[in-house]
Write a structure and sequence with these properties.
This protein has three helices and two strands; from the N terminus they run αααββ. It has 81 residues and is mainly α.
Length: 81
């Protein structure tokens, strides 16, 4: 899921247009709508997928910054280069 797909989902759910666009809402309203959506539907499948992918990318970036390599195969794991 791309960031734009997630933003479209939030726009559909909240009925607001993100602040970065022309005629967008006020940033505080956007943040409040996000908090409300998260509180009302913590198990939203679209948001859960977005969070999982975002966290995976962050985790893999940290691994690469630390000089670790993700290995798939017989010895699955994360090892130093």
């Amino acid at each position: 899921m791309t960031r734009d797909e997630w933003i479209r989902h939030i726009e559909e759910v909240t009925g607001l247009i993100r602040p970065a666009r022309i005629n967008g809402c006020i940033p505080d309203e956007w943040q409040e709508a996000l908090r409300k959506h998260t509180a009302e539907k913590p198990e939203c499948p679209v948001c859960a997928k977005w969070r999982a992918e975002r966290n995976r990318k962050i985790r893999e970036d940290v691994y690469s910054l630390l000089g670790l390599t993700k290995i798939k195969g017989g010895l699955n794991g994360i090892f130093p280069d």
